[in-house]
Amino acid sequence: MKTSLWLAGLAVVILATAGFILGLLTAPVQPLTSETSPPPALSGQPATSPPAQSQGSSTLSKEDLAKLSAYEQWLEDNRLLLQGMPMFERQTALWEKREALFGDDASRIWGERESPMHANQDAFQAELQRLDQAHEITPEETAHQLKTSVEQLYNNDMARQLIGPDVMTRTLFSLDAVQSHLHTLSADARQERINSLRRQMGYPEEAISRLSKQDQQRNERWQNGKAYMAERNQLARRYSGDQLDEALDDLRVEHFGRSAKTIALEERDGFFRFERERRFGVN
């Protein structure tokens, strides 16, 4: 069974994708005062200036305005660098600069704007944990509930479309309950079910056909890998030392050809790729 940390990672992938899209669709925030105007939000990043002060709230001090001016100048000076960073690396850089200038006040100034994303992540992680163990429902119902959960969290049509079937389907096929069902089916029935689920998640027929061929290639690799591991275990019981090393080298070449050296390096590091869990539709 996967850990809650792994499920949290899935939640981050989907919600970060949605956050990226919604950031593109969000208009720049209004100026805090007539003295300063925030720069446009970075692409894929929620507006980087503090939220506008609500009516009746206290205005920022001159010292805070000076810090804000320095922060916005830093944004402008580093705009291209920040835009080229991965999303989470950019978030880290932004928060480091905010905290360097504003200290503990950074969380107060920017936290309100970003807390909905954190709340959505927690809610979606909980839903993934539920679906992960929902063995009593069909994969089709799981797919429906997964799509519904994302739609409820992000009801923007463009955001839902741009999240795309790739992330959604990979998430679906990563759930234990779905994999448990797929493992009970024959090879042909399983492929038909995988194709149907991809169709339900929004893949066009051309992509379904292409992915089905990839599935067959994966199946062949796994069959070859399982046969290799069985023969490898027999050799390990029969030989040792240099004799075993030579026999394994020959066996790897027989099964993997040009990839034999890569397999050997992995095994020397203690990684045996065909001892991993097989997750249909994913690996």
Automatic annotation (TrEMBL):
SUPFAM superfamilies: Lipase chaperone-like. It is a single-pass membrane protein. One of its GO terms (cellular component) is plasma membrane. Its main location: membrane. It is found in: Cell inner membrane. Signal peptide: none annotated. Residues 32-61 are annotated as: Disordered. Pfam families: Lipase_chap (PF03280). InterPro entries: Lipase_chaperone. The keyword Lipid metabolism applies. GO terms for molecular function: unfolded protein binding. Keywords: Cell inner membrane, Cell membrane, Chaperone, Lipid degradation, Lipid metabolism, Membrane, Transmembrane, Transmembrane helix. It comes from the Bacteria. Residues 45-60 have a biased composition (Polar residues). The keyword Membrane applies. GO terms for biological process: lipid catabolic process; protein folding. May be involved in the folding of the extracellular lipase during its passage through the periplasm. Belongs to the lipase chaperone family. This is Lipase chaperone. It comes from Marinobacter algicola DG893.
